[in-house]
Write a structure and sequence with these properties.
Elements (H helix, E strand, L loop, with lengths): L9 H18 L11 H12 L16 H4 L6 H17 L6 H10 L9 H8 L10 H9 L10
Helix pairs in contact: 1-2
Length: 155
């Protein structure tokens, strides 16, 4: 039923997101205040030490990728939010995605507020995880421990 083959590029994509998150943190750190700061040199160093594909000399990808400036040190939130969504899927929906009671709980605990309630409190309630409620460093650490298991339909 369906196409459930493993995506060979899924881990590569996630790793690329980790690298982009890392360079975003560098670009929004005090190091950029140095007179000799070179954004391309930083990207080159990251790609050549941690990347899967070495930096291509003469290129400056970061100048064409607006997310690195538009999101201001929060690019990591893509991965962070995927981890939360993955946990919600796994713990709330994966066993029976079309369960009416589960859908109603999601609607009443999350959707009905439309951004008018602290998202940490909503996720905490939805996942029955009081350790997330305050959205503090402990909550961030906890989410950081979670895996991204976003293979919908795979158990």
């Amino acid at each position: 039923v369906g196409n459930h083959h493993a995506d060979p590029c899924n881990s590569i994509d996630t790793y690329a997101q980790i690298l982009l998150s890392t360079i975003d943190q560098i670009y929004h750190s005090p190091v950029v205040q140095s007179r000799d700061f070179d954004s391309t040199a930083e990207l080159e160093k990251l790609n050549n030490t941690r990347g899967l594909i070495p930096h291509v000399p003469g290129t400056s990808f970061q100048t064409q990728f607006g997310h690195l400036s538009g999101y201001g040190a929060t690019y990591y939130s893509y991965l962070f939010d995927r981890a939360i969504a993955s946990r919600v899927w796994k713990n709330v929906f994966s066993e029976d995605p079309l369960n009416r009671e589960t859908g109603e709980k999601y609607k009443s605990e999350v959707l009905r507020f439309g951004g008018g309630k602290d998202p940490w409190k909503m996720v905490s309630t939805l996942l029955s995880a009081p350790e997330l409620e305050d959205g503090d460093a402990g909550a961030m650490r906890e989410v950081g421990r979670w895996k991204i298991e976003d293979e919908v339909g795979r158990h």
